[in-house]
Amino acid sequence: MKLSEKAEEILEALWIAVEESGAAFLDPEKMAFPTDDPAYRELTGHALIEIRQGMIYFRPEGREEGKITIRRHRLAERLMMDVLNIRGEDGDNKACQFEHLLNEGVDVKICTMLNHPTTCPHGKPIPPGECCHQARADGDLGVVPLTEFKSGQEGEIAYIQTEDNKKMQKLMAMGVLPGNRIILTHAYPSYIFRVGYSEFAIDSNLAKEIFVRK
Amino acid sequence: MATCCSKQTESSSLSSSRKVALVGNPNVGKSVLFNALTGAYVTVSNYPGTSVEVSRGNAVINSQAWEVIDTPGMYSIHTITEEERVAREILLHESPDVVVHVLDARNLERMLAMTIQLIEAGLPVILVVNIMDEAERMGLSIDLELLQQKLGIPVIGAATARKRGIEEIRAAINGYRCSCEQRHFEYSRLLERDINEVTVMMQGEYILSVRALALLLLQQDDEISDLLRHREGDGYAPLAEKVREISFERRESFHLDLSLERNEMVKRIINGVFTAPNKRVVTFAERISKLAVQPITGVPLLIVVLYFGLYQFVGVFGAGTVVDLLEKKLFEGIFNPWIIGVVNSIIPWVIIQELFVGEYGIITLGLRYAVGIILPIVATFFIFFSFLEDTGYFPRLALLVDRIFKHFGLTGRAVIPMVLGFGCDTMATMVTRTLETTRERIIATILLSLTIPCSAQLGVIMSLLSKYPGALAVWSGCLLLLFLLVGLLSAKIIPGEAPMFYMELPPMRLPQLGNVLTKTYTRMQWYFMEILPLFVLASVLLWLGKITGFFEKMVNAMAPVMASIGLPRETAVSFIFGFFRRDYGAAGLYELETKGLMDARQLTVAAVTLTLFIPCIAQFLIMKKERGWKVAGGIGIFVSLLAFASGYLLNKALIITGLLA
């Protein structure tokens, strides 16, 4: 179902009011556009909401659609902050524009890339999608820093994230290269890992810059 | 490559001696090979860095004279650390006739990347696949014949620690003929284009191939840029512009792409060469290693090691039994009375008699201290240290204490100079250069010069204080407290960023007795070359001071300072001795104690002050050499002030509390 941007915003506002603030309905006066906007007709036409006595209520299908919409919005916020490093008001505005593109499976990809985040940058929960449940069920950690591995766990190096070129080269000299297998043998007091037939000890500052997948 | 070969014949025709350089990662057995080739043993170490200084030796193979150069460990021809820079300098400027790349068979895949770099640079490379014995024990098999074919250079399997393959290596070095058929390693089309764009602009003559230089330039290597700026003259500006342009285009991931491409190359090469068993063999050494790195077992293990190694072996056996035997029985009982008789009968002048066999005589004091007291202690310590070093225990200790050392602005790496400091602070100060940042080096130097007593001092002080219950505890408590205090403070005060810790863990192994002994011997030799002249000089100066009356004046001048920390004026003698060497000073205290001039409190105060007091003159000279006048001078003043201040406070505290009374 492809909704207009305004319709999506109404759904989001309604979802927040009902699901997070505990209200039964949303007063359309609180929206930034007139109550006779065609977006309302669009939503009632899809049987997502109903308007009784001038107030907006969810229909069961609408609740689900609202959840997905809010999820896309908050994923977009995370994307802005975590990956694109656009923060503050600017990030919020960009996220508002961006969220409308996250349909038809794009949200699943973004969610996986962000490693199934559970909260938005403002600390509000991101409703889990199918992909999140699936990941949890599979015990798939996704791509995590080496510090998240348990001792004895083995994985593949996904990438090295560091701004320090020297650190990067030191790690590469140890054989820490994307695609190589890595085994974390100890996580305390230092991180000890094995790549190939060599063992190395590093501190947490270096370990958190090695990203691995199981 | 043709260019490199022509240059070699040219250089070798100039002098009769030819050059061979050993290169490779740390801990692959370069130093052992060096010693096997040259016949002289230099320090072999598990700890990356003890071979910071370049060792050179001579070898004769089939009546051809060779100069053998042992380069510091390097991971890549694109250098990061100072050691790597030194190693590359040698390749760049000394144009060796043969470059022997030594690598660890078990890590063939990781280390071959550098072989490729060396071949690519057009150097005359021989590959030594070392540590074959352990690789075999792990069930790995390596087809050296195939590897040789694939690389196009001589490849030799060896286990240098067990003297395996040495003859083959000698033959390969001597028989090396530049084949000019060295393989050309092809990169991806994109990278090849970039390389080509840079190389066509290069006109100068170089030892390394232009291809390798182009890659180094693209990796933003400053030294190589300087070299080209120098050689290319006017052509440099457009070249630099081109390099800048390509680097910018590929700014995202040039280093990584290059590594990955080389990794791919290596994978293709070792395909069919290297076969590993499906199941990893867990060796006994790995089990021990596991015990050493977990705090719950590692700390008890450390205590066991320190108790048996340091306390029982160095303290009780070295400083107790052997000192007793040598100093008391041999020197005081037999040798001194005899030599005094001999000297007095030959030399009629009392003043000259005094010089040799007087109270501060060269023989009766200098030699007796050096051989009777210091030698046994230092020797036992170095045996202990060399043994531990060869087991591969130190890197494990380093990772165990890393978290604690971070509070002092150091990493776990610093534990090695610290432990070595208990042997000889001077040697340890030299080893601080293996620490990554200047900040770490300065902090380590301060802690070494202040709180770490060297073995000689430790031995004497332990035997002095052990007679008084509690005195040893007060002394070590004071040092530990100051170590923590000064460490924490300097981490706060000295500017610079927090250091990072990384370290290779070589496999643990049972050291070979021969290696341990020769290593101990080399260290002892160094130590004695260093201290014996100083002991003799000290004796001469003290003798001069005595006959001119200057010594007496100094002691008088220092008497108020001594009195302020509650010590008899005779202690000044120890402090004056202590200026020459800390251990010498401690030995002086020993003298005073035997004469019954000091009680427990005074001994403890004197021991603490003397331990903290200015590092011995040799250590100070090394500090100056390593850190420069300003830092060394600053540390010297700080240490002296803190030593006496601590002595003063401790004396007051002991009097008030009545402890040790």
Write the layout of secondary structure elements.
The complex is a heterodimer of chains A (214) and B (661).
Chain A: H1 5-20, H2 38-45, E1 49-52, E2 55-58, H3 60-83, H4 88-98, H5 106-113, H6 130-138, E3 143-145, E4 154-160, H7 165-173, E5 181-186, E6 191-195, E7 198-202, H8 204-207, E8 210-213
Antiparallel strand pairs in A: 1-2, 3-8, 4-5, 4-8, 5-6, 6-7
Chain B: H1 2-14, E1 18-23, H2 30-38, E2 55-61, E3 64-70, H3 82-93, E4 98-104, H4 108-120, E5 125-130, H5 132-137, E6 141-142, H6 144-151, E7 155-157, H7 166-174, H8 189-199, H9 210-218, H10 222-232, H11 236-249, H12 254-270, E8 274-275, H13 284-293, H14 295-346, H15 350-357, H16 362-391, H17 393-406, H18 415-421, H19 425-431, H20 438-451, H21 455-465, H22 471-493, E9 502-505, H23 513-548, H24 550-564, H25 571-580, H26 582-594, H27 600-612, H28 617-627, H29 629-657
Parallel strand pairs in B: 1-3, 1-4, 4-5, 5-7
Antiparallel strand pairs in B: 2-3, 6-8
Largest sheet of chain A: 6 strands, antiparallel
CATH topology of the largest domain in chain A: SH3 type barrels
The total tally of domains of chain A equals 3
Number of domains of chain B: 3
How far apart, in Å, are the first and last alpha carbons of chain B? 80 Å
Query: What's the story with the biggest beta sheet of chain B?
Result: 6 strands, mixed
Give the proportion of residues in helices of chain B. 55-70%
* Major sheet strand order of chain A: 3-8-4-5-6-7
Radius of gyration of chain B: 29 Å
Oligomerization: heterodimer
The count of β-strands of chain A is 8
Based on secondary structure, the structural category of chain A is alpha+beta
Q: Any idea what the CATH architecture of the largest domain in chain A is?
A: Roll
Structural class by helix and strand composition of chain B? alpha/beta
Mean pLDDT across the residues of chain A is: 85
Unreliable residue stretches of chain A:
none
The rounded distance between the terminal residues' Cα atoms of chain A is: 35 Å
Main interface: chain pair and counts: A-B, 32 and 39 residues
* Sheet with the most strands: spatial strand order of chain B: 2-3-1-4-5-7
Helix count of chain B equals 29
| General shape of chain B | elongated
